[in-house]
């Protein structure tokens, strides 16, 4: 009887562990967007403040799509205090910017 309980317990633990692993993996590759405003642009890096009032800096890859007021733009076209929505691909702790949508119009 004890052998059956132990086997059932191990099987249940394995199911929970594997299920949690799948959940964690799905969370790692989740896309993320962040709204805020630009603090500064340095070479290929964007520093912004999000709605949570925290300042963050991310490198901007050359292949990232950048728009300003709905039109294609370059990173150097963006200015401090411009409202921005940044889309990122998240893999573990790594955040890669895929799109920047900047707006000067209110």
Brief descriptors of the model:
single chain, 106 residues, alpha+beta, OB fold (Dihydrolipoamide Acetyltransferase, E2P), seven-stranded mixed beta sheet, 7 strands, globular
Assembly state (oligomeric): single chain
For the record, what CATH class of the domain at 31-103 applies?
Mainly Beta
Average of per-residue pLDDT values: 82
CATH superfamily annotation of the domain at 31-103: Copper binding periplasmic protein CusF
CATH topology of the domain at 31-103: OB fold (Dihydrolipoamide Acetyltransferase, E2P)
Give a structural overview:
The chain is of the alpha+beta class. It has a domain at 31-103: Copper binding periplasmic protein CusF (OB fold (Dihydrolipoamide Acetyltransferase, E2P)). It contains 1 helix and 7 strands, in the order αβββββββ. A 7-stranded mixed sheet has the order 3-2-1-6-7-4-5, with no helix packed on it. The longest helix is centred in the N-terminal third of the chain and has 27 residues, at 2-28. The radius of gyration is 21 Å and the shape is globular. The relative contact order is 0.20. Residues 23-28 have low confidence and may be disordered.
List the helices and strands and how they pair.
Layout (H helix, E strand, L loop, with lengths): L1 H27 L2 E12 L2 E6 L4 E5 L5 E4 L2 E2 L10 E9 L2 E10 L3
Summarize the structure.
The protein has 106 residues and is of the alpha+beta class. The protein is built from 1 helix and 7 strands. The chain has a domain of 73 residues: Beta Barrel (OB fold (Dihydrolipoamide Acetyltransferase, E2P)).
